[in-house]
Amino acid sequence: MDQSIIDILEKKGIVAVLVIDDLDTAVDSAKALVKGGITAIELALRTPVSYEAIELIHKNVPEMMIGVGTVIKPGQAQKVKELGASFAVAPGLNPKIMKEAKECGLPFAPGISTASELEKAVELGCKLVKLFPAEALGGIKYFKAMTGPYKYLGIKYFPLGGVSEENLPLWASEKDICPIGGSWIAKGNLIKEKNYTEITKRAREAVKIYKEIKKDLK
User: Fold this and answer.
1) Is domain 3-108+163-217 given the CATH code 3.40.50.150 in the classification?
2) How many other β-carbons are positioned within 10 Å of the β-carbon of residue 21?
3) Annotated catalytic, 130?
4) Which of 22, 42, 44, 61 is most buried (CB neighbours < 10 A)?
5) Residue 96 is among the residues annotated as catalytic for this protein
6) How far is 74 from 188, CA to CA, in rounded Å?
7) For residue 11, which of 30, 39, 31, 36 has the smallest C-alpha distance?
8) What number of helices (H) and strands (E) belong to the chain?
9) In sequence order, which residues have a C-beta less than 8 Å from that of residue 80 and are 6 or more positions away?
């Protein structure tokens, strides 16, 4: 992933995960996040309307930086780039998908969960990797133990999976971690119920917590 994209993601801080089942909720969900101060998403390719949702958000919410998640199949990287994605990530590390993303010019961060996978990502030139599933692996304790030997490399980590408002301060306190992914902000039930007020509220609180922690680290 290009350093310029990593720098942008660092400034944005929080990346909200979106899983869109109903196209009617795509734009309003994105707008609710922007209203709460979150201007980057990871829209997961897990539903039949995912591609259309990317296109709609790109067209109607230009201030939203669109990242696409679960990019694991041939052809997906090229397609989401054409629809307006600025970057993509995956739960795991697949060199073929990474190569495809590079060839079509889509910044890509693979998912890693072990030291061996991290070394493979480094070998392939990665500067940002997705740590997944962050909490199930062992949370901050595991992160520190696993990544400690590689700290000198300057790798940035994008934790996702089990991150919540409660443990957000722990993740935000680590200088090598940025951005931070959150699926609790725009949970599926909130989107289904069209509870955009609550999504905005959660986004605003997440941004507040993140900024306060990062400010103290400077």
Assistant:
1) no
2) 16
3) yes
4) 42
5) no
6) 27
7) 39
8) 11, 9
9) 45, 51, 54, 68, 71, 88, 106
CA distances from 143 to 12, 14, 19, 156 (A): 22, 18, 26, 12
Task: Give the model confidence (pLDDT) of 161-213 as tens digits.
Answer: 999 999 999 999 999 998 999 999 999 999 999 999 999 999 999 999 999 99
pTM over 0.90: yes
- How far apart are the C-alpha atoms of 121 and 181, rounded to whole Å? 19
Please report, as a single letter, which amino acid is at residue 81.
Answer: K
The letter for the amino acid at 11 is K
Among 42, 55, 100, 135, the active-site one is: 42
Of the candidates 12, 31, 81, 130, the residue annotated as catalytic is 130
Calpha distance 213→187 (Å, rounded) = 24
